[in-house]
């Protein structure tokens, strides 16, 4: 446990000042909790702190305090603890981005809760969980493993969620630590139950990672970057690149959305149905059964070397969408054989399938 605490400290930085963090001593924690009892401490988002803090970091600059609760390191700016009468610090931090509340709300309130079938709601909504699709989906998940080393010290899972599929656990099996970063404490609590001390759990923004440069052996980010604000998506790519060690690879699974013209043509009836449903929900919001989630997909070619400052290669993760699978993949329609054929085509033409299909897989390697 002492070694693990040292390794965590070696890894993290303050997301606001980009300076080193250190653990509060027992004496400093006692003083902090006394101030909390005296209602002198607030979070950067203005909310009062009303819980006893058992462990925390303090930043080298400005003395910002970040709580550690149930082994989760709260390194999102809005969770920075400050004295409420410290006007100098408040003025310094007044304009700092406090995070993506819409995305956080979706996963805390809905996405990472379990359904009646014991699946996460996120998977129920966005995945094809039918038996007929299982083999194809499994093989697509395992494509990620072909692009990252089998072992190392730190595997970063940027926007890890609860590590909801068994295949995802395989990626970090022989790493010292899987660094799970997410906005959702619910997700990280679930990840902790699966990984235990093999995980490092960070509440953080993947577009402004509280991680030192050049520390991560390999990084993955699966089906998330298109859910963060469009003006921050390039930053997320750059941050993944920044934290990698020299020679370290990164794998990012993205979605082309409306720019995947071939797939959209096949699922046109589904698209029409979805637009009608959105219109109905705008007119009658009480009918909504799940919170909104932000989505913005850039078109092919947007993430260029000119914009990013480094090269990426495009491969296929999965060429077909869930609506396509649910419309066309059925036992009576030779569904398994069709999926086997699609997978073979993807493997034969991985770059073409990544560009014209639904889900590309970007591969980068730090020089």
Structural account:
The chain has 15 helices and 13 strands. It is of the alpha/beta class and 367 residues long. The protein folds into two domains: 2-93, no CATH class; 103-365, Rossmann fold, CATH 3.40.50. An eleven-stranded mixed beta sheet has the order 1-3-4-5-9-8-7-10-11-13-12, sandwiched between helices. Helix 6 packs parallel to helix 14 and helix 14 (335-348) packs across helix 15. The longest helix is centred in the last third of the chain and has 16 residues, at 268-283. The radius of gyration is 22 Å and the shape is globular.
Tell me how many strands there are.
Answer: 13
The run of helices and strands is HEHEEEEEHHHHEHEHEEHEHHHEHHHE
Separate helix tally: 15
Reading side by side through the largest sheet, how are the strands ordered? 1-3-4-5-9-8-7-10-11-13-12
Calculate Rg over CA atoms. 22 Å
Strand content: 15-25%
Instruction: Look at the structure and give the CATH class of the largest domain.
Output: Alpha Beta
| CATH fold label of the largest domain | Rossmann fold
Indicate the CATH architecture of the largest domain.
3-Layer(aba) Sandwich
The main β sheet shows up as: 11 strands, mixed
On the 0-100 scale, what is the average pLDDT?
A: 90
Q: Please mark out the parts with pLDDT under 50 across 5 or more consecutive residues, or reply none.
A: none
Cα-to-Cα separation, first versus last residue: 33 Å
In CATH terms, the superfamily of the largest domain is: Vaccinia Virus protein VP39
Query: Which class do the helix and strand fractions yield?
Result: alpha/beta
How many structurally independent domains? 2
- Estimate the global geometry from the Cα principal axes: globular
Helix content: 25-40%
